[in-house]
Amino acid sequence: VLYLIGSLSNPRIIDVENALHEAGIETFAQWLCSGPEAAQHWKAYGHKRGWSYMETVKADFVQTAFNFDFRHMQAADGCVLVMPAGKSAHCEFGWFVGSGRKAYILFDGEPDRPDLMPPNLATGVFFDVNSLIKEIKNE
User: Fold this and answer.
1) What's this model's pTM, rounded to 2 decimal places?
2) Residue in 66, 76, 78 with CA at minimum distance from that of residue 121
Protein backbone atom coordinates (compact mmCIF):
# COMPACT_ATOMS: atom_id res chain seq x y z
CA VAL A 1 0.00 0.00 0.00
CA LEU A 2 1.25 3.48 -0.86
CA TYR A 3 0.13 6.25 1.46
CA LEU A 4 -0.65 9.38 -0.55
CA ILE A 5 0.56 12.54 1.14
CA GLY A 6 -0.58 16.01 0.23
CA SER A 7 -2.53 19.08 1.08
CA LEU A 8 -6.20 18.86 2.06
CA SER A 9 -6.81 21.60 -0.48
CA ASN A 10 -5.01 19.84 -3.37
CA PRO A 11 -7.72 18.47 -5.71
CA ARG A 12 -5.13 16.33 -7.54
CA ILE A 13 -4.94 13.81 -4.67
CA ILE A 14 -8.06 11.94 -5.79
CA ASP A 15 -7.00 12.06 -9.46
CA VAL A 16 -3.61 10.57 -8.54
CA GLU A 17 -5.26 7.96 -6.34
CA ASN A 18 -7.64 6.99 -9.17
CA ALA A 19 -4.78 6.72 -11.69
CA LEU A 20 -2.73 4.51 -9.35
CA HIS A 21 -5.78 2.37 -8.56
CA GLU A 22 -6.53 1.91 -12.26
CA ALA A 23 -2.92 0.74 -12.70
CA GLY A 24 -3.44 -1.88 -9.99
CA ILE A 25 -1.48 -0.05 -7.28
CA GLU A 26 -3.09 -0.09 -3.84
CA THR A 27 -3.22 3.32 -2.17
CA PHE A 28 -4.55 5.04 0.92
CA ALA A 29 -5.75 8.67 0.95
CA GLN A 30 -8.87 8.58 3.12
CA TRP A 31 -7.39 11.30 5.33
CA LEU A 32 -8.60 13.62 2.57
CA CYS A 33 -12.19 13.05 3.71
CA SER A 34 -11.71 15.47 6.60
CA GLY A 35 -11.70 18.26 4.01
CA PRO A 36 -9.65 21.45 3.82
CA GLU A 37 -11.83 23.19 6.38
CA ALA A 38 -11.05 20.69 9.17
CA ALA A 39 -8.03 22.53 10.60
CA GLN A 40 -9.91 25.83 10.51
CA HIS A 41 -12.75 24.24 12.50
CA TRP A 42 -10.24 22.89 15.01
CA LYS A 43 -8.65 26.31 15.31
CA ALA A 44 -11.98 28.11 15.69
CA TYR A 45 -13.23 25.64 18.31
CA GLY A 46 -10.02 25.91 20.33
CA HIS A 47 -10.08 29.70 20.08
CA LYS A 48 -13.70 29.90 21.29
CA ARG A 49 -12.81 27.61 24.19
CA GLY A 50 -9.87 29.84 25.07
CA TRP A 51 -7.39 27.05 24.41
CA SER A 52 -3.75 27.52 23.50
CA TYR A 53 -2.31 26.09 20.32
CA MET A 54 -1.04 23.00 22.18
CA GLU A 55 -4.33 22.48 24.02
CA THR A 56 -6.09 22.47 20.66
CA VAL A 57 -3.56 20.10 19.07
CA LYS A 58 -3.86 17.70 22.02
CA ALA A 59 -7.69 17.74 22.05
CA ASP A 60 -9.31 14.32 21.65
CA PHE A 61 -10.87 15.09 18.26
CA VAL A 62 -7.52 16.23 16.83
CA GLN A 63 -5.72 13.24 18.35
CA THR A 64 -8.32 10.93 16.80
CA ALA A 65 -7.47 12.36 13.36
CA PHE A 66 -3.72 12.06 14.09
CA ASN A 67 -4.03 8.44 15.26
CA PHE A 68 -6.09 7.55 12.17
CA ASP A 69 -3.48 9.02 9.83
CA PHE A 70 -0.47 7.64 11.70
CA ARG A 71 -1.92 4.13 11.96
CA HIS A 72 -2.30 4.04 8.18
CA MET A 73 1.17 5.52 7.67
CA GLN A 74 2.66 2.75 9.81
CA ALA A 75 0.79 0.10 7.80
CA ALA A 76 1.95 1.45 4.41
CA ASP A 77 4.90 0.17 2.40
CA GLY A 78 5.78 3.64 1.16
CA CYS A 79 4.36 6.99 0.15
CA VAL A 80 3.82 9.42 -2.67
CA LEU A 81 4.09 13.11 -1.78
CA VAL A 82 1.72 14.86 -4.18
CA MET A 83 2.85 18.44 -4.64
CA PRO A 84 2.08 21.15 -3.83
CA ALA A 85 1.89 20.28 -0.16
CA GLY A 86 2.53 21.94 3.18
CA LYS A 87 4.44 21.45 6.41
CA SER A 88 2.58 18.41 7.74
CA ALA A 89 2.91 16.64 4.39
CA HIS A 90 6.67 17.20 4.36
CA CYS A 91 6.91 15.93 7.93
CA GLU A 92 5.03 12.77 6.90
CA PHE A 93 7.34 12.37 3.90
CA GLY A 94 10.35 12.66 6.22
CA TRP A 95 8.87 10.00 8.49
CA PHE A 96 8.63 7.60 5.53
CA VAL A 97 12.20 8.36 4.48
CA GLY A 98 13.44 7.91 8.05
CA SER A 99 11.59 4.61 8.41
CA GLY A 100 13.44 3.26 5.35
CA ARG A 101 10.33 2.97 3.18
CA LYS A 102 9.94 4.01 -0.44
CA ALA A 103 9.15 7.72 -0.68
CA TYR A 104 8.25 9.21 -4.05
CA ILE A 105 7.53 12.82 -4.98
CA LEU A 106 5.03 13.72 -7.68
CA PHE A 107 5.21 17.34 -8.82
CA ASP A 108 2.54 19.05 -10.91
CA GLY A 109 5.26 20.26 -13.26
CA GLU A 110 8.91 21.16 -12.88
CA PRO A 111 9.32 23.51 -9.88
CA ASP A 112 10.51 27.08 -10.38
CA ARG A 113 13.33 26.61 -7.90
CA PRO A 114 15.20 23.55 -6.66
CA ASP A 115 14.84 22.20 -3.13
CA LEU A 116 17.73 20.60 -1.30
CA MET A 117 16.42 17.80 0.89
CA PRO A 118 13.17 16.25 -0.42
CA PRO A 119 14.32 15.35 -3.95
CA ASN A 120 17.67 14.08 -2.70
CA LEU A 121 16.06 11.89 -0.05
CA ALA A 122 13.29 10.59 -2.33
CA THR A 123 13.22 7.14 -3.88
CA GLY A 124 12.17 8.89 -7.08
CA VAL A 125 10.96 12.27 -8.32
CA PHE A 126 8.31 12.49 -11.04
CA PHE A 127 6.53 15.21 -12.98
CA ASP A 128 3.64 13.13 -14.29
CA VAL A 129 1.64 10.26 -12.82
CA ASN A 130 2.32 7.89 -15.74
CA SER A 131 6.09 8.00 -15.12
CA LEU A 132 5.45 7.33 -11.43
CA ILE A 133 3.23 4.35 -12.26
CA LYS A 134 5.83 2.94 -14.66
CA GLU A 135 8.53 3.17 -11.97
CA ILE A 136 6.38 1.52 -9.30
CA LYS A 137 5.35 -1.31 -11.62
CA ASN A 138 9.00 -1.97 -12.60
CA GLU A 139 10.07 -2.52 -9.00
Assistant:
1) 0.93
2) 78
